[in-house]
Amino acid sequence: MQPSKLLKPELYSAGSSDGDGATARLKGGRCRCGYVFFPMQTYGCERCGSHGDALTPYELSTNGTLLAEATVHLHADKNRPAPFTIVKVALDDGPVIRTLLADDSARVAPGQRVTGRLVPTTQSESGETVLDLRFSAAS
Amino acid sequence: MTRSLNDLRPVYVVGIGWHRYQNPSETPYVALGLTAIRAALADARIEWPAVESTYVATALLGMASGRPMLRHLGATGAPLMHVENASASGSTAFRHACIEVASGISDVALAIGVDKRNPVRRAETGIGHLAEDAIVPFTHFALLTNEYAVRHNATAEDIALVAVKNHRNGAKNPNAQRQQERTLDEVLGGKRVSGSLTSLQCTPIGEGAAAVIVASEDGIRRLGIDAGRAIRTTASVGRSERVYAPGAGFDAALTKETADLALAQAKVTPGDIDIIELHDAFTVEELHYIESIGLCPEGHGVRMLKDGALDIGGQCAINPSGGLIAMGHPIGPTGIGQIGEIVMQLRGEAGARQHQGARTGLAHMVGVGAVCYVHILQN
Ligand SMILES: [Zn+2]
Q1: B183 and B262 assigned to the same domain
Q2: CB contact under 8 A, B146 and A100
Q3: B184, B160 contact by CB (below 8 A)
Q4: pTM
């Protein structure tokens, strides 16, 4: 297998690999007050304002339920050629996140179960495959 | 104990003016702003030296754009400050001009919004994101459109009717950027932008200027201003986003809590409101916000739209100016232009767009961040 690296290792880590890519865990955080957020940060809790040691890393599953989807037809940034589809997902672990739908995902609709995977996107300059998080319909 | 604007001495809008909202042009912002200010001074029938304080609302002009514009009115030495609050910059400037007069610090203050279409630059927070660079405002609202359509069984055609109404209103507004009536087929058949949103369902960011002058009763008397054309601001509320239940739309929740406070401050109910100017940058927003303000239960907005209840002459005219979709959204001016439209309507001077018998108007703005501002004006 060719070497690979994660595009945003500060946001997610790789789990086991299979033919569809690797499973992923999200690097979230949890406050002493119980509030769970993504991504991890130590600036302070949006709910109660606690900071520093009150905030600890808390791994989140990428399993969730789709709240909304939108296929973008026009996008000015040449680094993101349209069309692509954005999904809004309520994670089972609490936070709501928005990111890209995998190109090979089946069509999705609100209410549907979805899951995130790390899939090959581009090649780095040193020839490694760069993996990034994409969601798709849960199988 | 703290007090709201309506507990302080009364404050009135006495002058309104615009430079037409338009597609980006070579016209310098100084010319846009001076046109609006001189129109507002002429409307109030006062001279520039009577203005004791100026709030300049602009999001995209960069640092210290006010004085190079205001000096051409004759440099009086009066204080000026700049207000940047995203889409709500103009609403925020208006609120603080009202507060300055209501508090007794000044008798006459100006809120002027002016902008050109320049690139939006936002500072890095130091916190990473998955793909926020791929989610521009129209995609944020395309996601909300999808959620609204599924939750309330509304079709793309139903939601696009908001644009048909607002283009119809804008066609009668000489200050609107888009002044052309559009059929439902034209709206739906336009360029697809994101999700089910087409270009005629999205605000055209452009340029322009809007100005309002506010005054106290002392100022009105001292300057001989026509009190019969003065419209009182009976509520002013500003709020910012809190943490809502997971999955709850913050845009609607923030609007609801801000509008509730404003209605209580003015001591009116949603049924008392004759006209509303609200932040319809994208069609679905109008439905969300009329429901949040309390005109109808959640999910009933399409019914009101189809019944004509939201038309000029209907139960409550929504965006009689054409709103952000047709009148336009040059950012800094937008919230001030809303106040101008409401004042024109409450004076009975709105001509072809007049909503007969309008007594109470509400102006609503949201800005990314997110912030929300609601003002109520009454005659
Ligand atoms: Zn907390």
Answers
A1: yes
A2: no
A3: yes
A4: 0.96
Q: Measured between alpha carbons, how far is A11 from A28 in angstroms, rounded to an integer?
A: 8
B contact residues 104-133, partner A, Cβ 8 Å cutoff: 126-133
Give how far Cα B104 sits from Cα of B107, B184, B303, Å.
7, 50, 45
pLDDT of B91:
98
pLDDT digits (tens, 9 = 90+) for B64-101: 999 999 999 999 999 999 999 999 999 999 999 999 99
In a domain, B128, yes or no: no
The CATH number of the domain where B181 resides is what?
3.40.47.10
Q: Which residues in chain A touch residue B143, judged by CB atoms under 8 angstroms apart? A: 67-70, 86, 88, 98
What residues have a C-beta under 5 A from ligand 1, the ion?
A 31, 33, 35, 45, 47-48, 50
Between B250-266 and B283-293, two packed helices, what is the crossing angle to 10 degrees? 40
The reply to whether residue A96 touches residue B146, judged by beta carbons under 8 angstroms, is no
Query: Which H or E run includes B130?
Result: none
State whether residue B95 is helix, strand or coil.
helix
Report the alpha-carbon distance of residue A38 to residue A99 in Å, rounded.
Answer: 13
Name the domain count of chain B.
2
Beta pairing class for B108-115 and B207-215: antiparallel
- Quote the tokens at residue B365: 């703005």
Q: How many CB atoms lie within 10 A of CB A32?
A: 12
Q: What is the DSSP letter of A7?
A: S
CA distance B45 to B124: 46
What total number of domains does chain A contain?
Answer: 1
Looking at residue A38, its amino acid is F
